[in-house]
Known about the structure:
The complex is a heterodimer of chains A (262) and B (263).
Chain A: E1 10-15, E2 18-23, H1 34-49, E3 55-60, H2 71-76, H3 81-97, E4 102-106, E5 109-111, H4 113-120, E6 123-126, E7 131-133, H5 147-155, H6 157-166, E8 170-171, H7 172-178, E9 183-184, H8 187-202, H9 206-220, H10 224-238, H11 242-252
Parallel strand pairs in A: 2-3, 3-4, 4-6, 5-7, 6-9
Antiparallel strand pairs in A: 1-2, 7-8
Helix pairs in contact in A: 1-3, 4-5, 5-6, 9-10
Chain B: H1 4-7, E1 12-17, E2 20-25, H2 36-51, E3 57-61, H3 73-76, H4 81-87, H5 94-97, E4 103-107, E5 110-112, H6 114-120, E6 124-128, E7 132-134, H7 148-156, H8 158-167, E8 170-172, H9 173-179, E9 184-186, H10 191-203, H11 207-220, H12 225-239, H13 243-253
Parallel strand pairs in B: 2-3, 3-4, 4-6, 5-7, 6-9
Antiparallel strand pairs in B: 1-2, 7-8
Amino acid sequence: MTEAATGSVLKYEVENGVAWLRLNRPESLNAVNNELRHALAEAVKRAERDAEVRALVVTGEGRAFCAGADLREFQERTGAVEAIRGEYESLLLRLHGMAKPTIAAVNGVAAGIGASIAFACDLRYAVPEASFREAFVRIGLTVDGGATWLLPRLIGSGKALEMFYTGDPLGAEEGAGLGLVNRVVEPGELEPMVRSLAERFATGPAAALGAIKRSVNFAAGATLEEALDFEFLLQGAMMETEDFQEGVMAFLEKRPPNFKGR
Amino acid sequence: MPDDTAMGYENILLDRNGPVGVVTLNRPKVLNALSPALIAEVTDALSHLEDEGEIRAAVLTGGPRVFAAGADIVDMAERSPVDQLLRDQTGRWSRVASFSKPLIAAVNGYALGGGCELALMCDMIVAGDSARFGQPEINLGIIPGAGGTQRWPRTVGKYVAMEVNLTGGQVSAQRAYQLGLVNRVVPAEVTLRVAVDIARQLATKPPLALRLAKESVNKSLETPLSEGLSNERKNFYFLFATEDQKEGMRAFLEKRRGEFKGR
């Protein structure tokens, strides 16, 4: 599949088991207008449902990752508020909840909803010039897009509140120091590096990768006792997968495993 | 030993896993819509399990994807009140609630409308992490007819019960767990297995005590405290007349596991 189904503001391609979502409004720093928001929600839904897709990458065309919501459309209040909310929630909940690894390749500024998209992914790799920014307060707004939940869990509430109160950007290097960015990568290296990692996930034991994410998400709302129970039960299910058999055989035979995602 | 074919069931599966009976709603193409035929088969299967002495507990499930997404709307759309009364579809469900052995619901995916009410008739609920509970009847111009307005408030209190019954919105497995509607949230792959494990544990316990414990707890939802306590005491005294009480206490003193016969 290529971009046809979701329109040119978002390129969607599945390559070697990885769904690539490329925000494609470079002239507007990939700001999210109604069309792009809708396309993003649809693309993430499609990637979640497509069994061929075993990992997902979000990145931006041009020099920005995503500069946030498109304020021009915002001012005109085009689109029903409830529909807008529904699409944003669907997008963020799926990125965070889908049982597949999700990666943000942050190629430039990630502000507002753009930062939220990066925060909702499991992993973030960024170029040195990239930055994260929650500038809502500068126009008299509170923070939304799930950032009040996501960001404190990634960098702690003190740092998160500082970003929210000041609206100042957080650079990639500082983000790496805080654990927000997994690694800072030179611009030319970002895509090859993320591609290699995502394709490694895509050839991995899909059920186990999904189970890891489900367990981490379950644990976030559970006690240690409940999390132990959930982990134990999922491990039992993993032991019945073909990939586990293959993993054990490969280990015993001292060869790399050939996982099938079953 | 699955014998649903011998019973001629077309809408459910009935399996016996040692002392545990497993009833599976089996109309996956229509998300286990609760047709009159399906309801008749569930109640028939439970009647059999009730009568079989070797069956000590049961599990009710909808399979791996969905518990039951509600009643058969196609079947219901044009009915009159008299049709409804004569068929008494929801009244027939009373067989589920009156089942005297422990009955555990294993819920994956949607348990909506009649499906949710069916789960609420069970004694415990094990939910897969994908489970969703709700009473969407309000959106069809009706209200729940098999206990939705009664069992929700008795379980989660008035305010959440109002929310569920008035808005028609859904409750996730995690929220249901926090509300006390669900005993355990487990990975969806193992929901049935966990429910059967719990049922197997219960199957090792003294059947008459299980039955009276279940009856006493259910009675508490219908009686003033003094009456419930009095009822509990009578059941407590009665159990001293059973062989299993003698065996249970002797085994405890001898530091061994009791072997219960249901006598």
